[in-house]
Design brief:
The chain has 588 residues and is an alpha/beta fold. It contains 21 helices and 14 strands. β7 and β8 form a beta hairpin. The longest helix has 20 residues. The structure holds FE2/S2 (inorganic) cluster and magnesium ion.
Amino acid sequence: MSSPASRPRKTVEELRSHRWFASDDIRGFAHRQRMQQQGLVREEFMGRPVIGIVNTWSDLSPCHAHLRERAQAVKRGVLQAGGYPLELPALSLGEVMVKPTTMIYRNLLAMETEELLRSLPIDGVVLMGGCDKTPPALVMGALSMDIPAIFLPAGPMLNDRYKGQAVGAGTHTKKFWAEYAIGNIDRNEWVGLEARMTRTTGTCNTMGTASTMTAIVEAMGLSLPGAMSIPAVDAAHSRMAWQCGARAVDMVWEDLKPSRIVTRQSFVNAITAYAALGGSTNAAVHLPAMAGRAGIMLDLEEMDAIARRVPVIANLYPSGEKLMEDFFYAGGLPAVLNKIRDHLDLSALTVTGKTLGEDIAGWAGTEDGTILDPAHPLKQGSAECPEAGMTLAVLRGNLCPDGAVIKPSAASPELLRHEGRALVFDSNAEMLAAMDDPDLEVDRDTVLVLRNGGPIGGPGMPEWGNLPIPKKLLRQGVRDMLRISDSRMSGTHYGTCVLHVAPESAVGGPLALLRTGDTVRLDIGERRLDMLVSEEELARRRAAWVRPVSTYQRGYTRIFQAEVTQANLGCDFASLAGNAPTPEPPIY
Ligand code: FES
Ligand code: MG
């Protein structure tokens, strides 16, 4: 690692924007002319770092509703530090509104980020995002472009309370829905709940995918220390935005690019933080995708190995029972990292220009039961199920030769070693229709299986993997069952759900061969997921299998289906992965 101080500072002539603005030819004239068309004077944008602010704000992205205003604080920071700020609106992926799933657009936002930065006179960038797919997408684009970049997390929404209980976005929606479905909550109460759980702008206030991914980005060294836990509406969030702007200018002079920060070691740090937080299974898709952009091959088994040794110490929904506002008061991510220092490479460089160890040194946490001691983690494994407290387990077997994942800490320990009869659905719509059927042939030991929900089959790998419990079993008091799919699950959800089965059924993965009535076995100790069907029978079924014809014959979805990789590889586009150099655009 070379410290920023040991490098010569960049000169004005070395700025990327210099190529656009300094030349004495007709192109340089036109570039300066068009800036002045906006009322700017030459000195505002010439001879200083031009900082792009990639803003994923929109009116249909409630988690990012404050980012338009927050960009003003970033601009003040950039100006104060001697740079010139430019706001670049980008695709806004509000998780709840975007159909069929934001996942289908993660790569599009990554591509947009990279190409915005490449095609415009930008020297450094502040990336504004937070809602689930936006942190990985923005980081993927910035890694590929490799100019100085700092990630500004949108921050979580404030806590809510309902009948004296803390209630969290997503997690409690699902809990209340199950109670409403069987009449434990009446219509008036249900309608009233619409105004609850999401009390302010900001990302989901549980350790869902947004908090998981912003924590991963901070642990990788791409955010300011402590940034991800600051509530969206806190004045500290505006101050952090100012600091991001100011820091981005210095990072340009220091030439502190992502390729100097993001290494295999920083990924290990990020996975370690993820394991300690009890983070979302979606990280198992986004981490390999981000690593791929840095030219790093990340094996799912590396994540499994880290999750085996790093205990969950964040007492946050859906694994625990506190919310992100509590996490902020308790000291946020640096307080967690200080507790698991022994598992981290503290020499990793961060956007501060210092090491991770220096960033978190002396960061005071509060011992209030939100961030626990590793000696007394959130969930202890038992003799029968040592895996019960783990954030992630990676499975292999004849149902998932390229891998599948499960989050044991959000599952029922008694279902983690389970054998049952499969009930297989070919589509989400078919499955949802069946769940209300009082005559559905199902009991608490049945294994619910959904296929055609993968990257190509979904398409876009929607969050269908948390299949609902059949109504007739809900009435019997059943709240969890073993569920298997090639889909993903919302990070705010819980349950014994095997996800990301690869290869997916739509490309002929073994999941396509499973039939209702077959026996399926999950053995978490052996990290195995198998169907107990003979090789001869599977060969017969394979020979009879016909690849489904895509209903998408044009447009972005067609490109997506042609380019997307399988879940274990991160679902990036094949042609976007890797870190081969891309030439700078010619100015003429
Ligand atoms: Fe945006 Fe949960 S919906 S973070
Ligand atoms: Mg989510």
